[in-house]
Amino acid sequence: MADKNEAIKLWRFISGSIEQLLKCLDDLSSNDLNWCPIESANSLYVLATHVLGNVEENIIETLCGQEVNRKREDEFKASGDSVDSILIKWSNLQIRIKECIENLSSEDLNSIREHSRRGQLAVWEILIIVARHAAEHMGQAKLTRDLLFVSQGKTIPWRKY
After folding, report:
1. Which DSSP category does 63 fall into?
2. Is the pLDDT at 1 greater than 70, yes or no?
3. Is 36:140 a contact under the CB 8 Å cutoff?
4. Other CB atoms within 10 Å distance of the CB of residue 83
5. Rounded to an integer, what distance in angstroms lies between the CA atom of residue 107 and that of residue 3?
6. How far apart are CA 116 and CA 13, in angstroms?
7. SS percent in the chain: helix, strand, coil, step 5
8. Which region, left, alpha or beta, applies to residue 27 given φ > 0 means left and ψ of -120 to 50 means alpha?
9. How far is C-alpha 73 from the geometric centre of its chain's CA atoms?
C-alpha cells in the first residue's frame, strides 16, 4: 500500500525534473525559446508548456478532482517571448499541488481514478506516470538546448545536474 510519504517523495522527483527542464530556458531569447532542431520537434517553450499542462491535468484534475479544462493539442502550438508566464504558472501549480498531495490519505493513494486517456489507475500509478513523463521531457529539453547552442556555434554549458 502506498502512503503519503511515498506521494511526497514522488512529488519531489516530479518537481525536480520540472525545475531542471525550466533551467534549460534560462537566459534565452524569444527566438531561442521557440527554436526547434527539426520541423517535427518541440521547442523548449512547448516542452515547458506541455509538461505543466500534463502535471496540472493529472494531479489537480485526475487526483484532486478540480477541473482544469486542459487543451493538450494547444500546448504543442505554444510560443512566447519570455518564460515569465511559464514561471508564474509553475509557481502557482506548486502551491496547489502541495496542498492537494497533503490532503491525500493513504486510502486515496490506493484508490482508483478514471484517467481521461489511460482508463482506470490507482492514484500512486498516476504519480509514477507523471514522474516518468516529466523526466522524459526534461531530458528532451536538455538535448534541445544543447542542439540550439551547437546550431549557434556556442559552447554547450557545463551542467552539474
Report:
1. I
2. no
3. no
4. 19
5. 8
6. 23
7. 65, 5, 30
8. left
9. 15
Question: Which residues, including other chains, have CB under 8 Å from residue 88's CB and lie 6 or more apart?
Answer: none
pLDDT band at 161 (very low <50, low <70, confident <90, very high): low
Indicate the pTM of the whole model: 0.93
Domain ranges of the chain: 4-151
**Using CA atoms, how far apart are residues 48 and 46, in angstroms rounded to an integer?**
5
In angstroms, how far is the first alpha carbon of the chain from the final one? 32
Q: What class, spelled out in words, does domain 4-151 have in CATH? A: mainly alpha
DSSP state of 43: P
What's the grid cell of residue 54?
Answer: 500534463
- Position 23: which residue type? K
pLDDT for 70-88, tens place per residue?
A: 999 999 999 999 999 999 9
Q: What is the mean pLDDT of the chain?
A: 92
